[in-house]
Write a structure and sequence with these properties.
Layout (H helix, E strand, L loop, with lengths): L8 H5 L35 H47 L7 H7 L2 H6 L1 H11 L1 H19 L5 H15 L2 H12 L5 H17 L1 H9 L9 H23 L12 H15 L9 H8 L2 H30 L4 H6 L2 H6 L1 H13 L4 H21 L5 H28 L4 H25 L10 H33 L16
Helix pairs in contact: 2-8, 2-9, 2-10, 2-11, 2-14, 3-7, 3-20, 5-6, 5-20, 6-7, 6-8, 6-11, 8-20, 9-17, 9-19, 10-11, 14-19, 14-20, 14-21, 17-18, 17-19, 18-19, 18-21
Amino acid sequence: MVLDNSPNSEKRELAHVDLNPKESHTPPSPEFSGEEHVMHQNIDEGFDPAFVRSTMRKVDFRLVPVLSLMYCISLIDRTNLGLARQANGLRMQKDLQLGVGQRFSIATLVFFVPYIILEIPSQIGLRKFGARWWLGIATILWGVVTVCIGFSKNWQTLAGLRALLGVFEATLFPGAAYLIACWYPRRSMAVRMSTFYILSVTVSGFGAAMAYGLSTLNGRNGHAGWTWIFIVQGIITIGIGLLSLLFLVDFPDKATFLSEQQKELVITRIQRDRADAIVDPMTGAKLVSYLGTLKLWLFAYMFMCGTVASYSLAYFLPRILATMGFSNMMSQLLVVPPYVWCLFPAVSSALVADKVKGARAYAIVFNICCLIVGTAMYSHIDPKKKAARYAGIFLAIGGSNSFLPLVVSWSQTAIRAQSKRGYASALIIAFGGVGGIIASVAFQEKEAVKGYPSGIYLTLAMNAANVIAVICLRFWMMWKNKQADQGLCVIEGNPDFRYQY
């Protein structure tokens, strides 16, 4: 709903915004400049505020919950290995002989190899086939693989299926991050990205309680308790994949659930905010130029440091709790509360990042510090003080899972062009897979009784360096903005573009 007296005023302003990418002759990119790249301070100017709110609320309800549900089951399926191993007195470890050498770490690690390699190619398929079909079918397929894991008879089969799981799961997180970034202006991105991520993490925390419940089926129909964990959770995943085929929305230019006025509003706001509403296809030349964008590699490093902590806790927390003296049942059930808690620091940090000017980097630093303090607490406090050590797990899980979506959203505010958004989300989340590999290797089974000292010290060191990296990037962005204000440089190919830090 446009307040201008002329009903076509906004359409005239967006005459260059072609909703059909196939007919677009001048796609925006950091190298392209022109009148169509003029950005506005007030992205909602000319629109009825009530119309803006109702439209974006409609987008929120159609986009974020479905993606959250898909990523929630993704997290459960990729991290339930540690819970399954702990079930029924390490029955899975005995059945598949995972306690020999580094077999459990290998089964954990192989997931990340195809997950990393296929991140960028998956973004091409996302645009070609559409989010609904690409992500929905991938979810169904990894659900089938999860069911098959429940019928593994040896550790080699388990490792092979885990690798296949990584093939299909490679599509979701970078695809979801890319999709969210294409719908929202920069000042709304952290809240949506964090809501999507943290709802998934919080609900997936209940996967521990569900895994314990399923493990009580031990012996039912001749199957061990750990097999029921994979079989039932895989069936749930297939169901969620089918639901996503019905309800997941696509990119703004393909949105069928919005009216033409609403679609125009969404695209106008994006164009005014960063002037990259038009789809621009990825080319070899663009990919080479993006590979040389150092700030994206720094964002990837930040994300990797956080995933070393988050994956290590996801895979090894039941074992860590067991070494703290908790029973087998409690070591699984006590996984849930810290993941529920992380909803609060994540959402509050995202609100500060979006609403307070100059707070994005500081919100990340605060959560990294919580991660460092929490890790030191649960690993170094006197073993007799279980409550204090368990409180450290709250801080560590809350800190790591709060700053990861902030890094993704910050990276998306620092770039232009949709092809670059797809590349950035794939690169950064691929490095999250590298963090998973590091966690799998650093947290060695032979050190379990000692509390995984190698993994703990590596986590502390990497995230201490991470604080320095975040602060340095913030001041570099401040310097580049000042240069742009003085006309000494152009950021992201647009003289009006400024970093948000």
